[in-house]
Amino acid sequence: MDSHDNNNSSTWGLAAPAPSARIASKIWPVGALCLAISDALQARFHTVTVEGEISGLTKASSGHWYFSLKDASGQLRCAMFRRAASLVNVPIQEGDRVQAQARVTVYEPRGDLQLVVESLRLAGQGNLYEQFLRLKAQLEQEGLFDSARKRPLAAIPAGVAVVTSVNAAAWHDIMTAFRRRAPHVPVLLVPALVQGQEAPASLRQALQKLYQGIEQGTLRRADGSHWQIDTIVLARGGGSIEDLWAFNDPQLARLIVQSPVPLVAGIGHETDVTIADWCADVRAPTPTAAAELVAASAQQLGQQLAHRQDRLAQVMDRQLLGQEQRLQRIAQALSRPSALLARHGSRLDQYAHAMRLAAQSQLQRTAFRLDQLQLNAPRSVQKSVQQHNQQLAQAELRLRMLDPQRVLERGYAIVTNPAGEVVRDALQAMPIEPLHVRLAKGSLRVQVLDVKE
């Protein structure tokens, strides 16, 4: 045991050396000793995973993070450089319990033991967060997060249904916001579990019942009147990823996008994000913010009404002023009817004079055209007769050229058989057969003595 203690002391340089060794011992510069200790720590521990609570978190403009990890029995300074910090895909804030994968080193300028953090994640959520990312990617491919299908909220809702736990602080916060901002808006509570293994089924059942009541008009108040619901709020207060896991249920996500009216998700705190937030028509950072988004305050509505009243008054004033000016012009005209009649009479005289001038001009143009036609008619008829005569002469010439008699006059003859058919081929005639031969002058009746091809 003593030997073991001595070896340890010697290794770490904590025990006083013997008088003879003190003279020969190496004198360490402070920085070199810090570096040696840092090398020894890295060789001994290399990469470690440490769990603790974030304290004193500082995010520098350079992108580096500086903080401490602490628990009930200790505290370690940590540095996380920009490259590693940029890879953290969850919001980290003061007081979060995290798991850090880090190297143990010594910060030489101060001689402080520190961790150089390579990766960081919230404690206890590693597997859950990986499931969340996989589910988010799957549902995004299915189109559940498509912004094109998301609908705007009603400016003044006729009725709001809130799906949450009846005992939750979220329900109290929502009703407080409605009473303060819009006490005129009726609010229906649809109770459901919002945490635990049975919460997803409870939320789905509450939404399905609500959808059916909205579509079929079967939601009734205590006095028997119908609820008119045009907005749904799905709400829960803040918590860990485990507490909010019910709102990452894929079946619940698919049901949310089937809502018959716009649906607002007010789940957790501002940094909490669930699958339900991505599927909802509108995402509110908190339940209270969801109520504020759904119902405009009475003060805001009053300001909007006052603004519209002012605009309406301005439009009416302009219209009345224009009508008043028009009536004044009409009154001035009616106050002197003789002058008005005189102006109209003068205009009628001008129109009559213009019509007379136009008629005379037209008659003159027509008479001139008739004179021209009378002068040009004989020449036109004579020219037309000459053209027709030329056409007839040409036609007569063409007919004479086609006359068979002209062909016969050149020494040709037309031979026909007893049937009167023209003989064009010697083989058409038979020996001793009589034929008729037509000449330019007269005709012959001949008999075939022989046939040669």
Structure description:
The protein has 453 residues and is an alpha/beta fold. Helix content is 47%, strand content 19%. The chain contains 13 helices and 13 strands. It has a 5-stranded mixed beta barrel. It has a 5-stranded parallel beta sheet with strand order 7-6-8-9-10, with helices on both faces. A 3-stranded antiparallel beta sheet has the order 11-12-13, with no helix packed on it. β12 (434-438) and β13 (443-447) form a beta hairpin. α6 (169-181) packs parallel to α10. The model is unreliable at 1-21 (pLDDT under 50).
Report the count of strand segments: 13
Strand order of the largest sheet: 1-2-3-5-4
Structural class: alpha/beta
Order of helices and strands: HHHEEEHEEHEHEHEHEHEHHHHEEE
**Strand share of the residues?**
15-25%
Largest sheet: 5 strands, mixed, barrel
Fraction of helical residues: 40-55%
End-to-end Cα distance = 150 Å
Count up the helices.
Answer: 13
Choose one word for the global shape.
elongated
Q: How big is the Rg? A: 56 Å
Low-confidence stretches: 1-21
